[in-house]
Design brief:
Helix content is 80%, strand content 0%. By secondary structure, it is mainly α. It is found in: Cell membrane; Membrane.
Length: 408
């Protein structure tokens, strides 16, 4: 790898880490903020939290292909900066929210501009070779996770001084990230690899149609879709689940999310490279899906707090499947189409975010509304995650066998 490529990767990783730190800050305090604004209990607050994520995801579903295609035309840098500035505005709305409507407006703004990860992933694809693609995707996922270490800790600590304080910190951090990117982030897409912007391809349905032209990866994308819905059980339900079942404090929730982030850094920056080199992307992905299923089962049926920690370890080890999916899918597309691919994937994953938080939080609400009911089971959303991940595993196994036969 030449020095300029190392520099570009370093900048992408720093921007990604700083951006997710801003996201991580708000996770521990969001349940309490909703409770305060709506004047309700934690069970009902979970449903509001799901619909807030729905609003964000719906906008991302619509606009991610637009931004992805724009990055293929004008480069990654400008689109990434737009995304960062949009998140700054979002956090300002959350910080000074007077009622629940303000939260929805902020989440809508963030969803429209929320393409930072997809553009960063496209940047990684721009400068990766077949030999280092999986490792580089592991690095960016590790950078993403590092923000989830720092962010929840800051959010948990600042949340003790008021539910609005962490959002002010997130706004400052996001704007600082924008300034950092403006002056120091180099574009990774060469002008010779840029292509004309086409509106018919810059919408979710056009993006899906384009993705369908790659029969070897379309079933993988479907599997990734189901697994991503399952993965939302952690950010969407975790805070509500631990408050309901174990009466965790905001500070403890923040530390637990930071623990998840630390584990993710180790897995994505170290374990991914080892597994990919030794077993290949396919076996690594299957391995990850099996571990994810075990992790979700342990969380669902945990009756003692200590069991949550080995469950989190197993679940995070399972996250190698995400990098495996990314690497396999990305390897099938040219550099000039990486932005469109990543935008299409972001839109599809945005669709999973439209479905997942309302679904999972409503399942949580249904099974926790009455503690004396025979149906009381806070871990129910994690059983849904088990089922969805199992479907993804079956699809992955079938796809892997078909690709092997094609090569032979």
């Amino acid at each position: 790898m030449v020095p300029s490529q190392r520099k570009s990767i370093l900048f992408v990783l720093i921007v990604t880490a700083l951006d997710t730190t801003g996201l991580g800050i708000i996770y521990p305090v969001m349940p309490q903020l909703i409770e305060d604004l709506v004047n309700t209990d934690i069970s009902t607050a979970a449903t509001y939290g799901g619909w807030l994520t729905f609003a964000y995801a719906l906008m991302q579903f619509i606009f991610a292909p637009v931004l992805g295609n724009l990055s293929d035309r004008y480069g990654r840098r400008s689109v990434l900066l737009i995304s960062l500035f949009g998140f700054t505005i979002d956090y300002i709305f959350l910080a000074f929210a007077q009622n629940i409507t303000w939260l929805f407006i902020g989440r809508i703004i963030a969803g429209i501009s929320g393409a930072s990860y997809s553009v960063a992933a496209a940047s990684i694809a721009d400068i990766s070779t077949d030999q280092d693609r999986t490792k580089n995707f592991g690095y960016i996922n590790a950078a993403y996770s590092s923000g989830l270490i720092i962010g929840p800790v800051i959010g948990g600590l600042l949340g003790q001084f008021g539910t609005h304080i962490p959002f002010i910190a997130a706004a400052i951090l996001s704007f600082g990230n924008f300034i950092f990117g403006y002056f120091l982030f180099p574009d990774t897409l060469e002008k010779s690899n840029r292509r004309k912007f086409e509106l018919k391809r810059a919408n979710p349905f056009g993006a899906f149609k384009h993705l369908s032209q790659f029969p070897t990866i379309i079933t993988l994308i479907i599997a990734m879709f189901f697994v991503t819905i399952a993965g939302h059980s952690m950010p969407s339900v975790w805070a509500y689940f631990t408050i309901e079942k174990f009466n965790w404090s905001v500070e403890l929730i923040g530390y637990s999310l930071a623990f998840l982030g630390l584990l993710s850094i180790i897995v994505q920056s170290w374990l991914v490279g080892i597994l990919a080199q030794r077993f290949g992307d396919d076996k690594m992905t299957i391995f990850g899906l099996l571990f994810s299923i075990i992790g979700y089962l342990l969380i669902a049926f945990s009756n003692v707090e200590w069991l949550l920690f080995p469950a989190m370890v197993i679940n995070v080890i399972g996250s190698v499947q995400r990098t495996g999916f990314q690497s396999i899918i990305s390897s099938q597309v040219s550099k000039s189409e990486q932005g469109e691919l990543q935008g299409g994937l972001s839109s599809l994953l945005g669709l999973s975010t439209i479905i997942a938080p309302p679904l999972l939080t409503m399942v949580f609400t249904h099974f926790t509304k009455n503690e004396n009911s025979d149906l009381y089971f806070p871990g129910a959303p994690y059983l849904v995650a088990v089922l969805l991940t199992f479907v993804g595993l079956i699809i992955m196994l079938i796809n892997s066998q078909k690709r092997k036969k094609t090569i032979i």
